[in-house]
Design goal:
The complex is a heterodimer of chains A (501) and B (510). Chain A is of the alpha+beta class. Chain A is 39% helix and 18% strand. Classes of the chains: A alpha+beta (501), B alpha/beta (510).
């Protein structure tokens, strides 16, 4: 890549003067056992070119057969996105030559998607709800995976040779296309991010995909254009391909806003093109120019018959849809009695499932929140982990809180127990025993320590006897110190006062 | 029954095997010997699978000896058009681009043939990717018509038709996209059947035009076609366009046609598929055939299918469109020929271009270019879109015609076999060979060509019978009736009148 300087306009300035319009295409790999059009198995991390059949290799004579499970998953997605489900729809061939496309055409849906005209509400971090309209969701097959060997960039240009793995070729995809998203203004990057995140959550809730961004299960192409104002016609858009993390989606939108604003400010025109996203530098660079030369010569796939999902089946699928993330959040917030801000923090921290499981294991919602959003959130941040990545289970958190509630440990000891659990020393009970952290509740042992403390500080005893309860804390402190914090402070106070009379 | 095992029909061979009059090894060897003797001059085969065929034959003989109940055609040898993939047996589709490719899997119909115990003699020659009407577009040389070695055997399945006509196989598999089974049948004096679309699995057929391609039997008798059709037909879950309905018995229909009259059967003569453009001798034999059918009790009616005039035009848009996409996979990346550019960088795109440039013949390139153009943005509606509308109109014509007639009939091809090179430089003249056969492909209805005698030039003429979709049995009944009537009038099979083929020297000495 040659180092060219790109003019950028300050983001805030750009959005003051231009109205950004976004459009997002999300591809999700469906978690079916087999491929879209053949019985080749699908699993992550298999030997290259081991999960293939004559169909997914595009061998002469091979014919596709539609995977019924993939159709069901596509319908599930369509229904969850409030789409209409087509009574009948067809596959089409998208013709283009590329070595990772075994037939040199992709079997996709063109003018007859399985789902269309939907919408989804996405919630921004501050709780604002933004409605995104869905134009269509259609089924297609994934391409194989190219690896370019040699050369500096890992891109085909400059590579010595390229390897193709067809394991991915033919994996079912659903592509979800939004209508132009307008009205987001300077929050366009946030809306884009929240939209992709919402879809990811929905895919998981629907159990149609593992939806792991880092494995490329979910991939986003981000279209962006600027216009002078909300009344102006849409500007020329660019399509930034393969933006594959939530953060990158936000950054890519932000970058393109700044870049396109600079182009327009300079009196130039935005070129309609695809752009590459560079994760490391956070910039986009020009890819293919989209022009009339890009002619996929779509025509109906003659090897397949139309897909006509019976209405009863669609209704069965609708009835069996699981609770979707937004509805679930609302329900749980009600059940748990969290304030809006508390719930938002829980959601943003990715703690909802963990708290739900902890509550299910018997902890009060407040108790569960205290641990996950307090000590554990601190630890996760310190170790740069997701909450779910910590070496503690909701059941262990529930057990820990149970020990506190039973009075066997206090909060201070509980933190030490948690340390032990995180260090892999076992369940809370085991850590308590192994580390000898149980609260000293044997009055005899406490009285011995108290008598010792009283004897050491006769002046304080006098003051207390004289009616001044203030200095009693010093005695309690001495007792706690002597018992290495394992005493119940309230009980110590009681006994001290009793002893002094 | 003849002493020469190669002169027997498949049904006769099956009977002889069942009665242990001879073994499958004997009958298979007889055909392999015949291939060795005459195929140098006919060139019906691209690959002869001697060992494989004999191994199957031995296996069948052993199982029969052990008292096992075997499928009817077990042990009867067969030839397979080289457009059908065969595991472990080279499959080229008549193209240089697949030279040396050995498929790792069997087509469904080949699986069924193997399961039924038919020894596969080899793979037959064809126009490259089944594109042609003379087999002159094969990348591996011409197949010659056994009736006149200077003439074409029809196409694209000239190899299968010639193999059967030259007694190099009792049965063969063909494929028919616009007439590639029926027209070779007509010009070689054999029987060829294109089943209803969806009746025989296309899984493992190297596709030319997916919505038109259909595999079917190539034989010397109508009964043999029925036997083979029933063997290879039926639903296949690997072909989404294969239908689930079970057809009425085709063998019963053929037997009924041969043995009973045609009372109550309405035979419709399609106005648009006769008359002008058809050779005089072809018309004469067609008229005589109609008389014979009438004599057996059939009612002859005339029906009009006005949109058939546009069938050829629509076909030459739809077929190349689909072919241009189906043939995209031949790119040197995964299988078959790979040619690197002579100079300049070796990029995937340039390897693809060099491979396709070197691997495809002119006719294939012509159709890819036509199809690519017809599907292009801005032309799609005018070409592919309009052609699909014509297709619908042709389907309606058929539907209306089948209200008035139980079967429709026409000459199979406008002329008898022409000489090599006669039409090679005139694609349009070549395309006209299929004018009568194409409507059936566009509508998905079944069609059959039955020998109707010899034209004035001494060359075979074919009589075509068309039936409604999934009523394949009707054409077997009428085809068998005509065959029986003609046999009576000729006093023996038409192929008995074919000239004796020159026999290879080695065979003469042996």
């Amino acid at each position: 890549m040659t180092a060219t300087t790109v003019d950028l306009v300050d983001y805030a300035d750009a959005t003051r003067r231009y109205d950004p319009v976004i459009g997002i295409e999300v591809h999700v790999e469906l978690g079916t056992l087999t491929k879209m059009f053949c019985p080749a198995e699908v699993s992550f991390g298999a030997e290259p070119n081991s999960q293939v059949t004559p169909v997914s290799l595009g061998l002469p004579g091979a014919l596709p057969v539609v995977n019924g499970k993939a159709v069901e998953y596509a319908i599930r997605i369509g229904l969850a996105l409030n789409c209409q489900i087509a009574e009948t729809c067809r596959f089409a061939r998208k013709n283009y030559f590329y070595p990772d496309v075994p037939k040199n055409f992709q079997t996709s849906q063109y003018d007859e998607p399985i789902a269309y005209d939907g919408w989804i509400d996405v919630e921004l971090e501050d709780g604002t709800v933004f409605r995104v309209e869905i134009e269509r969701a259609h089924m297609e097959e994934d391409a194989g995976k190219n690896t370019h060997v040699g050369g500096a960039t890992g891109r085909i240009h400059g590579a010595e040779y390229s390897l193709v793995d067809y394991n991915r070729a033919g994996i079912p995809l659903v592509e979800i296309v939004t209508r132009p998203i307008t009205g987001a203004g300077d929050r366009a990057p946030e809306v884009a991010r929240a939209y992709v995140q919402t879809l990811r959550d929905i895919f998981r809730a629907l159990d149609v995909s593992e939806a792991r961004m880092e494995r490329g299960n979910v991939r986003a192409d981000v279209n962006l254009s600027l216009r002078a104002s909300a009344d102006a016609p849409l500007g020329t858009r660019t399509e930034t391909k393969n933006v594959n993390s939530f953060r990158s989606v936000e950054r890519a939108v932000r970058y393109e806003v700044s870049r396109q604003a600079a182009v327009l400010d300079a009196g130039g025109t935005v070129i309609q093109e695809t752009r590459h996203w560079h994760e490391d530098t956070g910039i986009t660079t020009a890819g293919r120019v989209k022009s009339d030369a890009e002619d996929y010569r779509y025509f109906p796939e003659p090897d397949l018959v139309p897909v006509a999902p019976p209405r009863e089946w669609v209704e069965e699928i609708r009835a069996a849809l699981p609770e979707l993330p937004v509805a679930r959040r609302r329900r749980l917030q009600g059940e748990w009695g969290y304030a809006d801000a508390e719930m938002r923090d829980v959601v943003n921290a990715g703690a909802i499932d963990l708290i739900e499981a902890t509550v299910a294991a018997g902890t009060s919602p407040a108790g569960a929140r205290k641990w996950w959003m307090g000590e554990l959130a601190r630890r996760a941040k310190q170790d740069d982990l997701e909450l779910g990545g910590l070496a503690v289970t909701p059941a262990q958190v529930a057990e820990l809180q149970g020990l506190v509630d039973a009075g066997r440990i206090n909060d201070k000891l509980a933190r030490q127990v948690l340390e032990g659990v995180l260090a892999g020393e076992g369940d809370p009970e085991q850590v308590v025993v192994a580390r000898g952290l149980e609260v000293v509740s044997d009055d005899g042992a406490l009285l011995a320590a108290i008598d010792e403390a009283l004897a050491a500080q006769p002046d304080i005893v006098e003051k207390v006897r004289g009616g001044n309860l203030g200095p009693v804390g010093a005695i309690i402190g001495a007792v706690m110190k002597a018992t290495r914090g394992q005493a119940d402070a309230a009980r110590v106070r009681e006994l001290v006062l009793e002893r002094i009379g | 029954m003849s002493d020469d095992l190669t002169r027997l029909s498949a049904a006769e061979i099956a009977e002889g095997l069942h009665a242990s009059d001879f073994s499958s090894v004997e009958v298979t060897q007889a055909h392999l010997d015949r291939i060795a003797a005459v195929d140098d001059s006919v060139h019906a085969y691209l690959h002869v699978s001697t060992d494989d065929a004999l191994a199957t034959a031995r296996d069948v003989d052993a199982r029969r000896a052990a008292g096992e109940e075997l499928p009817l055609l077990a042990g009867v040898p067969i030839a397979v058009k080289d457009v059908v993939v065969t595991r472990g047996m080279p499959t080229t589709a008549g193209s240089k681009i697949l030279e040396g490719w050995v498929p790792p899997y069997d087509a469904t119909l080949v699986e069924r043939i193997r399961e039924a115990g038919l020894p596969i003699l080899g793979k037959t020659n064809m126009d490259e990717f089944a594109m042609g009407s003379s087999t002159e577009h094969s990348a591996y040389g011409n197949t010659r018509n056994p009736w006149d070695l200077d003439r074409i055997p029809g196409g694209s399945g000239g190899g299968s038709a010639a193999a059967v006509a030259a007694f190099e196989a009792p049965l063969a598999i063909g494929t028919d996209t616009g007439g590639s089974i029926r027209q070779p049948g007509a010009v070689t004096g054999t029987v060829g059947v294109k089943p209803t679309y969806g009746g025989v699995s296309r899984y493992g057929l190297i596709a030319m035009a997916s919505s038109l391609d259909q595999a079917g039997p190539v034989t010397r008798t109508v009964l043999d076609s029925a036997l083979l059709h029933e063997l290879i037909g039926g639903h296949d879950p690997r072909d989404s366009t294969s239908f689930r309905d079970k057809l009425p018995s085709l063998v019963d229909a053929a037997v009924q046609g041969a043995t009973q009259d045609l009372a109550g059967v309405r035979v419709g003569v399609v106005t648009e598929l006769s008359g002008e453009g058809y050779q005089e001798g072809v018309r004469a034999r067609f008229a005589e055939s109609l008389d014979l059918l009438r004599a057996r009790g059939a009612e002859i009616v005339e029906v009009s299918c006005p949109h058939f005039d546009y069938a050829l035009g629509a076909y030459y848009l739809i077929m190349p469109s689909e072919a241009s996409s189906n043939l995209a996979k031949f790119d040197g990346m995964r299988f078959g020929l790979r040619v690197e550019p002579e100079d300049g960088p070796v990029t995937a795109e340039r390897v693809m271009a060099a491979t396709r440039g070197a691997g495809f013949g002119d006719e294939v390139k012509r159709r890819i270019i036509l199809g690519t153009y017809a599907l292009s943005a801005g032309y799609y509606d005018a070409y592919y879109g309009s052609a699909q509308k014509v297709r619908t109109l042709i389907q309606r014509d058929f539907a209306a015609a089948f209200e008035q007639a139980d079967v429709l009939v026409s000459p199979t091809a406008p002329t008898t076999a022409f000489r090599f090179g006669e039409k090679l430089d005139d694609p349009l003249a070549m395309y006209l060979n299929d004018v009568a056969t194409i409507p059936a492909n566009l509508a998905g209805v079944p069609g059959m060509s039955v020998p109707a005698g010899l034209s004035d030039d001494g060359l075979p003429v074919g009589f075509q019978v068309l039936a409604p979709a999934k009523a394949d049995d009707r054409m077997y009944r009428v085809g068998a009736a005509l065959e029986a009537a003609l046999l009576d009038s000729w006093g023996g099979p038409l192929l008995d009148r074919a000239p004796v083929l020159p026999v290879a020297t080695a065979e003469q000495e042996g």
